């Protein structure tokens, strides 16, 4: 690793781990530059800079000793990472370590580097004209502003003979003429835009969806509030758990989001048939157990997964999710409404999706040891990967359509049934059926399995379990009863829409 020595010039550059986005918006970039001013300016002269979504470039002159300048860079990256992690509910390193640097030994290379850094946004089609880009130093060379670019500005302009020629030379050069494409100071593929912004896009979506859902459920309950719990996963990542308990409508419920990453555990490598792989997974998972047995339990989750090779390249990615209804007493109007909402969401993307994913839901949420479904189904889809017909963006649009439909599917049912009268016997039946729900989650559910085998947070994983449950020996519903009616439907799936 090249040491940073006083009175020497360097090309400093780095990217996010696995090419992750490190600057999501203008506010992130502005904050990073403020930290640059705070930590670096006293130790270096900045000659040029450019920030893009997943990496940055600086040309600098070191003005202090090696130990001090290294500490300054460490303070910069640590301060920004801490703020970024807090904003995005993540943990762990954000930038690759150690940060990359190349010693600039002659003025011709320095001149070419200045051009390269300033033209970077246009080279990657971020903007049509690099001169309009706000987060590079190019514009500062035509103003009196010296906040970030140093007293060395006259020296840099002098490399081009004059400011006029500085601008002309920038306009005349192309990436090939600059001969930077094969610069061995950059990792292979470093200058490509983020390999996938999909995880950032979806992670932002589930944050917003969690807020929307919990706000509406709190309004419906009218008594209880969601308790929020932020948690970290030691191996990488974390989440935001929101739980509601002992409410007027919801006896227990949780709406959780998480984003975890790191080395894929051995057990999961065997499951996926891979070796030595890293992963990223994020999603929203919710379960609501209403107090009134006339109101059905509901479950939903929407998730995204990426797997990487040793060089951080994405080798696999997919979406999954769905939503399903578990009633204790069958109201056919409710079943039709829930399924019709699911079908409407599916039909906007493919007329074959509803029948396909409804069948998979009936098949998946099935207690084989009981020969009955967990509930009356809904949608279940998994391993939704890019094909000739569906890009990952298409899948994103579909999954978020289903996610956005959840409240429309469930809330009218809750509002219609939450104030109905019920007896102790009906409450007992609800608790017996909840036992079947527990059995499925602990015996069959893949999400529970994945969470437990990736050292997930136990409280969040088992949040789906109801607070009061009964297991009555050889319980059989009375012939001709409403309870028996439900069992018969669970044994033979119905086409509700």
Automatic annotation (TrEMBL):
One of its GO terms (molecular function) is DNA binding. It holds the Pfam family Coprogen_oxidas. InterPro entries: Coprogen_oxidase_aer, Coprogen_oxidase_aer_sf, Transposase_17, Transposase_17_sf. It comes from the Bacteria. Pathway: Porphyrin-containing compound metabolism; protoporphyrin-IX biosynthesis; protoporphyrinogen-IX from coproporphyrinogen-III (O2 route): step 1/1. One of its GO terms (cellular component) is cytoplasm. GO terms for biological process: DNA transposition; protoporphyrinogen IX biosynthetic process. SMART domains: Y1_Tnp (SM01321). Residues 5-120 form the Transposase IS200-like domain. The keyword NADP does not apply. Keywords: Heme biosynthesis, Oxidoreductase, Porphyrin biosynthesis. Its EC number is 1.3.3.3. Belongs to the aerobic coproporphyrinogen-III oxidase family. Homodimer. This is coproporphyrinogen oxidase.
């Amino acid at each position: 690793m090249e040491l940073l020595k006083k009175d020497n010039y360097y090309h400093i550059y780095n990217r996010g781990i696995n090419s992750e986005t490190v600057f999501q918006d203008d506010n992130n970039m502005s904050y990073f530059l403020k930290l640059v001013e705070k930590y670096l300016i006293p130790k270096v002269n900045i000659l040029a800079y450019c920030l893009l979504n997943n990496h940055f470039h600086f040309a600098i002159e070191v003005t202090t000793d090696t130990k001090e300048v290294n500490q300054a860079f460490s303070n910069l990256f640590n301060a920004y990472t801490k703020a970024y992690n807090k904003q995005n509910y993540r943990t762990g390193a954000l930038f690759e370590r150690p940060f990359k640097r190349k010693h600039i030994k002659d003025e011709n290379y320095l001149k070419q580097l200045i051009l390269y850094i300033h033209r970077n946004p246009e080279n990657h089609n971020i903007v049509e004209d690099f001169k309009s880009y706000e987060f590079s130093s190019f514009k500062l060379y035509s103003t009196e502003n010296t906040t970030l670019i140093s007293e060395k500005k006259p020296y840099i302009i002098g490399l081009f003979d004059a400011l006029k020629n500085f601008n002309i030379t920038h306009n005349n050069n192309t990436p090939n003429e600059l001969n930077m494409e094969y610069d061995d100071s950059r990792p292979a593929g470093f200058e490509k835009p983020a390999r996938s912004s999909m995880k950032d896009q979806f992670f932002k979506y589930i944050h917003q969806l969690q807020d929307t859902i919990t706000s509406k459920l709190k309004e419906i309950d009218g008594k209880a509030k969601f308790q929020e719990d932020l948690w970290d996963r030691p191996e990488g990542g974390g989440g935001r758990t929101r739980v509601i308990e002992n409410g007027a409508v919801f006896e227990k419920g949780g709406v959780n989001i998480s984003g975890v990453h790191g080395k894929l555990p051995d057990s999961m490598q065997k499951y996926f048939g891979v070796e030595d792989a890293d992963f990223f997974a994020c999603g929203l998972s919710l379960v609501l157990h209403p107090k009134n047995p006339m109101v059905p339990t509901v479950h939903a989750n929407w998730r995204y997964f990426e797997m990487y090779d040793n060089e951080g390249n994405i080798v696999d990615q997919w979406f999954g999710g769905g939503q399903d209804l578990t009633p204790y007493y069958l109201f056919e109007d409710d079943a039709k409404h829930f399924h019709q909402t699911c079908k409407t969401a599916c039909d906007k993307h493919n007329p074959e999706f509803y029948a396909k994913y409804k069948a998979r839901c009936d098949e998946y949420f099935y207690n084989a040891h009981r020969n009955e479904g967990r509930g009356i189904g809904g949608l279940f889809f998994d391993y939704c990967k890019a094909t000739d017909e569906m890009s990952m963006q298409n899948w994103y649009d579909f999954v978020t359509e289903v996610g956005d439909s959840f409240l429309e599917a469930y809330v009218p049912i809750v509002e219609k049934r939450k104030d109905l009268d019920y007896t102790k016997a009906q409450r007992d039946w609800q608790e017996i059926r909840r036992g079947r729900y527990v059995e499925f989650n602990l015996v069959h559910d893949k999400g529970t399995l994945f969470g437990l085998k990736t050292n997930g947070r136990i409280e969040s994983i088992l949040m789906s379990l109801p607070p009061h449950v009964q297991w009555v020996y050889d319980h059989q519903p009375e012939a001709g009863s409403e309870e028996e009616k439900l069992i018969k439907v669970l044994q033979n799936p119905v086409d509700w829409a």
